[in-house]
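Newbie here. three chains, one complex. Structure please?
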Amino acid sequence: MTIGGIPLAGFLTAMLAAGLVAAAPLVLAALGEAVGERSGLLNLGIEGMMLSGAFFGFTAAYLTGSAVWGVLAGIAAGSLLGTLFAVLTVSLRVDQVLVGLAITIFGAGLTAFLYRDVFGGQNPSLSLDTSRIAIPGLSQIPIIGDAMFNQSLLFYIAFALVPVFAFVLARTRFGLQVRAVGAYPFAADAAGVNVTRIRYQAALIAGAMAGVAGAFLSVADLKIFQIGMTVGTGFIALALTMVGGWNPYRILLAAILFGLLRSLGNGLQIIGVNVRTEFITMLPYIGIMVALALLAGKTSLPAALGVPYARGRR
Amino acid sequence: MTRALSPSRFAPLLTSLAAIAAALVLGGIFLALRGKDPLAAYGVLVSRGLGTSYGITETLIRMAPLLIVSAGLLVSLRSGVWNIGIDGQLLVGALLAGVAGAAIAGQVPNPVMWLIAALAGMAGGLLWALVPGILRVRWGLNEIITTLMMNYVALNVTSWLVKGPVKDPDVVPPQTRLISREMRLPDVAGTGVHVGLLVGLVVVVLVTILFRHTVIGFMLDVVGRNRQAAIHAGMPVNRLTLVALLASGAMAGLAGANDILGVKGLFQGNWNPGYGFAAFALVYLARLNSLWLIPFAYFLSFLVIGGEMMARPLGIPTYFVEMLEGLMLLCFAVAAWVERMRSPYARAEEVETGPANAGEPPGPLISEPLLEPVARVAGGPS
Amino acid sequence: MAQALGQPNSPVVEMRDITKRFGPVLANDRVSLDLWPGEIHAVLGENGAGKTTLMNVLAGMYQPDSGTIRIAGEPVRLDSPAAALRRGIGAVYQHFTLVPNLSILENVALGAEGGFVLDLAPAEAKVASMLADFGLDVSPRTEIRHLALGQRQRVEIIKVLLRGGRVLLLDEPTSVLTPGEVQSLLDLLRRLRDQGVAVVLITHKLGEALAVSDRVTILRAGRNAGDLGPDVMSGADRESVRARIIAQMFGSSPAAETDDSSMDHLPSVIPTPPRVIPTKEESRRPSRRRPEEPRFLADARHDRGAPAAARDEPTSETLLSLRNISTLGDRGAPALHDLSLDLLRGEVFGIAGVDGNGQKELGEVIAGQRPVTSGRVLLEGADITNRGVAAATRLGIGYVTDDRLHEGSVAESSVADNVALKSIGRKPFSNGFWLNRRAMEQQARRLIAEFDVKTPGPHTPIGMLSGGNIQKLLLARELALEPKVLVCNKPTTGLDLRTTQFVIRSLREQANAGNVVVLIASELDELIEISDRIGVMYSGQLVAVMPRAEADPETLGHLMLGGARRPRKASA
């Protein structure tokens, strides 16, 4: 059976693979954002942090020839901006939206500037050995095998982090403190939790994860850097975090749905189905708004999201 | 204006200027680290951007859309509404303006065509703001995420429209029909700057009048500064919120129409000038004061144009200016903190204390108390 | 004597000369407090007497500006709630410090030391047995939001005890409880006392304090105003103890006027003599006056050398009528219950009550700011129920809120803007579209002059003004609208004497002109002085309405604290 001249099984595999690869950075960024938002930090800088992760990850990988160094550089870049976010919003109590947008603008400008400056007019691509790692047995499963179990290491890590984050949030002291700080910082403070420290840590995690997500794009997936290459992935991750109700598993689900819808658009175009791609690509965004509207009033935001905390102050 | 000149009136301006200065210094250090001479760079920036008629002309042309979008953003931010969907609203507005303009160009007198195209642009932007507006007012859904998402929907919708239904069938690339050069906005006499700049200035003046001299502007300010006081005073808070968002969207649409009618003549797929971020920097630096938008818009436009002109001779990528914008906002955040620490309100705030107030029960998803009123954050004019 | 009662002979906590200032407000002024193990110690005082601040200092929430705290004789610095908890001091706040979307167990574990991975199993058994012990039939895994308020309170107490708390601070613990729950809470506190816990009961409900306390400390205006030790508290003469406490909390013969001879009656067991310092206000007031003469009149005469505003008798014509009003508070809990009231032309109707008994909500209902869930509001016979603020303002209802900074005014806006805030859509401030800035400025200048407001000018942001001047402006703003009904919520809080007099006189004149003034106040002397009738609110109802002649601070205080109605009270 073929579809548009392509074997159906191959088509489905390609679609699924593309969808999951699109979902992976979203998952990474959204997991970090979930920790941040759970602690009360709305990080609109996520887009800039991702771009920085992508750029510095790419550059480090390019210079060292090592994907590992690339990813580490991505983490470092994201963490730095995450810390900056925490300094400005937690310690100086400047508005989170303002700081977030500032970081996004800065990150976009910085990476674009450096990319042009460092690489000139060239657009080099990485020649790394980030070849796919086929998991014996599983990768042989028809259709889904090649899509799910023949991917880069970072791809596996992204999805493996979902239960890790779920565990950290639900079952660790840190996770408990994060949840308390975001829901009711005064209660956490009264119980002896250091609200400032927890929020710094959460911001650091959010930044680091956004950085990895960026590095995934440039180092693991595309092997190139493009100016503004995240095209809103960070903001989408932020929205998916809310749609997923700050629950890592539901975030995973939302991210995969989003990724699949996106790959569906491309897939349909490839096989020449007469549906405008744009209709399909915009579906996920509309889906996010519809989901939020449906969820409004049903799910609770971390009550202190966006609100700075100072002891004995409103 | 009747307001007395008090010594503190220009103090907010100092915060912005300090932020700009700090950003320029940081940017200079950055250049030095990359092995460039920052003084030479800023020298070229100034000499070309300010010292050549080309630089000045381009700066003024660039200023027009920036003035219009930032005036719109200012309306929403002063009313406590985060419209982060400027870019999407602008795109939809530009597309509708391009379509409407091209459809009637030559069949009606040019001014009528301009007017209709401008109205179409405003309608487009307004429509795009209406969705988040309704979601906010009816369902209490905070506009930050929804306006952001609408940006991407706008990218796709306009891209689809321009490839299909409204595509100029006579050419290959996805774009609307061209409005020929002679039918576009004329230049201001004796300059190379099209009259869009005047439109921008008029819009800024209108917004200034709105806030200084009209009841609705007065109420928008109150809602933005203290929602509870607005409720206490019996103002229609929800309606005002919607009005602010819609007005802001309409102005973004108008800015899109301006670029179509004044510069481009047609809407191309994948065209996305991304004024939104610059507008944010601009509105904060102007401390939410509409008249101050004018010098700051000139300054930012000058940076952009000067940056472009500096790129070739010095090998400094134009993106340096975008980075500077980000740095300015970051420095502004710090400067605003310094200002807050020194303001009498910081002390007044301390009085109203007590753990009883320190936490709220969880609210519905993304509801209103999510964030501090913007006007408070940005410390707008009195 | 303390030893005779079977207690260790040293206090577990000694607070000495604690001073805490918030901006211009002196919340605690050299307050001292000793806590003894195995005792229930009530800290009594009106709203704003400094009880909660004192508690927050001890709980590590606030740092005192000066003063010392010793625990078991050792000086300590409690710079965070964590530090206080480590010293065995735990607080149960009025607004609970439980995270609603976490389970009981998680709330208890929050802040406790331990490894990275949260192992709740060992604590679970302990919490479960405590829950059972405290009469809570819920699983430790239940999320807090599913618990009733009374249950949450017990969880708070369990939380403190499991963290090793030996000193338990409770801020107004009964304010959220039903009468039955109150009884069982008090039983629980007795049990904890018997186990050697030092229990601090911060309250303004006298009955409860009398029922369980071994020791009482009374605060007034941020200072110690009296201490009663175990010998007095366990004495037979409850009525005299009650009278003495009421006098020290509210009475027109405040502690400031107790001289040394009255100290003879106080028990010797109290470690330090109570600090009897006249409050700032009182020391400024000429206090040599005949006791039956209302303080305000006396002051006014003294200051002005002329009689204060004359009092015209109210008519019997109803202007505003509330019929069976019920409404909800901000948190969705019932705030007013089936309240009815007729307000007569020419009267000042005073409302007494302890904060949170529905006075604010009543004011907001009249002003149209809070919708009623049932009942009707009639103005001159016309139904204006739930018409909203704008309509109410137009119809002649004014409202001066007690939250002058966050609700009554826009701090960043100019005096002129704030003066026009409520009637901006009307002449003279606008024609409905265009503002008339000149009229706004003129009006501001007029009011500034007329009400003697200290401000650099009409263009100064109102937030830069002092509280008293803001208050004058808010009152002026309402009066300028010539309201038929004016509701004022605590208009004189934090004002100096002259301003207070001015406000009072303005309100009196407003009523004398044939209008209605509803005055919500906590200063009982002031309330009695100005009102024609006084109603007392308790738990969302008017529990008593009496003519001025029948009102005195002791009677009102008794009713405000939930005391039984006196037989002769007038019906609402």
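Moderator note: Chain B is about 70% helix and 0% strand. Residues 68-292 of chain B form one domain. Thread marked as resolved.
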